[in-house]
Amino acid sequence: MAGPVPNRPALLNPLKSTHMTDYDVDLFVIGAGSGGVRAARMAAGLGERVAIAENRHLGGTCVNVGCVPKKLFVYASHFREDFDAAKGFGWSLGDPQFDWSRLLAQKNREIQRLQGVYEVLLDQGGVQVIAGQAHVQDAHTVAVGQQSFRCERILVATGGWPSVPDIPGKEFVVTSNEMFALDTLPKRLLIVGGGYIAVEFAGIMHGMGVATTLCYRGAKILRGFDEDIRDFVAVEMGKKGVVIRFDTHINRIEKAETGFLAHIDEGQPIAADLVLYATGRKPNTAGLGLETLGVELDTKGAIKVNDDYQTNIPSIYALGDVTNRVNLTPVATAEAMALVNHLYVQQSTPVDYDTIPTAVFSQPNVGTVGLTETEARKRYPDIDIYQSVFTPMKHTLSGLGEKTLMKMVVNRSNDKVLGIHMVGADAGEIIQGMAVAIRAGATKAVFDSTIGIHPTAAEEFVTMRKPME
């Protein structure tokens, strides 16, 4: 999400003037990412006068340097394995060649298309779009460059930004932002971190032929996920050729004759041509004027809000990653809808944070919804675990040896399914449907009585009969 908004006039359309108030706008949104755009469009659709400011690209992190380009890269990186698998099904292929510059050009074209879609949606929705850095001057005033707006309400939806620890040599590292625009692919990549961004880029870069090492200071990757998922993903990634070094702490990065050296607590430094730090993201609140105004932030710089996304200053609201609660694009859009319904429809549509499905586009894919086994055992005394590890049908011939894990957490006393977890091909696609069942309160008996689709991996979820001992 680097660089200015390209070649757009500061004002794309005039504000509606149907409201006779002392304010220029009813709602001023700072940040045109998924949450901000959804709130702006919904409020404008209800007749409110809305403006939105963005100092980089329309679409925010997700469209520009997040979900969308990441998923395109995942698709691209998987072809090498698909070519290998094809031999087991009778296909003879030549030596496939990968062109990184071609992929970048294709990716950039799609991102530009999506930016244009966002611009049209906002423009046609009657939202005034302002290019530039917004600064909150007081509880009802926002300045963007030389322009100043009196606002009945202000919504901050500026998302997050990659965070790199303050270590010697940090100027030599890149973050996920830069990974989407590398001039050339490195031969050797060191990834520092163990969260979903680190794990996803490990699979992406390895699939594109880069020798990839992932270093994590902890004992397991993917903190917060089910323990069996964490163990299983690490094993499967290792089988594919990604080197994972646990309990490894990097002290400094040194520029070498060829590439860089990452110095660790013990042992030889790790050599790499590129070092990616995926060590977390921080709320993007710097430069907005919030602290001067007295908006309460937590120790990580996240904006504190109540259940209605309202800050300690009644006219100022915040949602999405800038509040650092559940940092997922669909959560930000759901929060936006809840806020607009609360403010302008007087309707309460609270977001259910307990049953949020999510996916990690690692290789193999992770999909999960509901409670982990650890969480469930803390809340309930009688938990049954159903689990299956198997070779999916494709890999009985592919020769790749990839396994799939499926796991279900059930409350024995009322048979309610509390959580479902999967590692394997299309896990995200499969878990989306499982999330509907969890949200509806499905019991294990409902799953057992559901007829499976054969032959699929997904049918395993309706054929697991015996809990683990």
Structure summary:
The protein has helices spanning 34-45, 60-65, 67-86, 100-124, 176-179, 196-207, 227-240, 290-293, 329-345, 373-379, 395-398, 427-439, 444-449; strands at residues 25-30, 50-54, 128-131, 134-138, 141-144, 147-156, 160-162, 188-192, 211-215, 243-245, 250-255, 260-264, 270-272, 274-277, 281-283, 316-318, 358-360, 366-370, 383-390, 404-411, 416-423. With 469 residues, it is an alpha/beta fold.
Q: What's the SSE blueprint?
A:
Blueprint: E1 25-30, H1 34-45, E2 50-54, H2 60-65, H3 67-86, H4 100-124, E3 128-131, E4 134-138, E5 141-144, E6 147-156, E7 160-162, H5 176-179, E8 188-192, H6 196-207, E9 211-215, H7 227-240, E10 243-245, E11 250-255, E12 260-264, E13 270-272, E14 274-277, E15 281-283, H8 290-293, E16 316-318, H9 329-345, E17 358-360, E18 366-370, H10 373-379, E19 383-390, H11 395-398, E20 404-411, E21 416-423, H12 427-439, H13 444-449
Parallel strand pairs: 1-2, 1-6, 2-3, 6-16, 8-9, 8-14, 9-10
Antiparallel strand pairs: 4-5, 5-6, 7-15, 11-12, 12-13, 17-18, 18-21, 19-20, 20-21
Helix pairs in contact: 1-9, 3-6
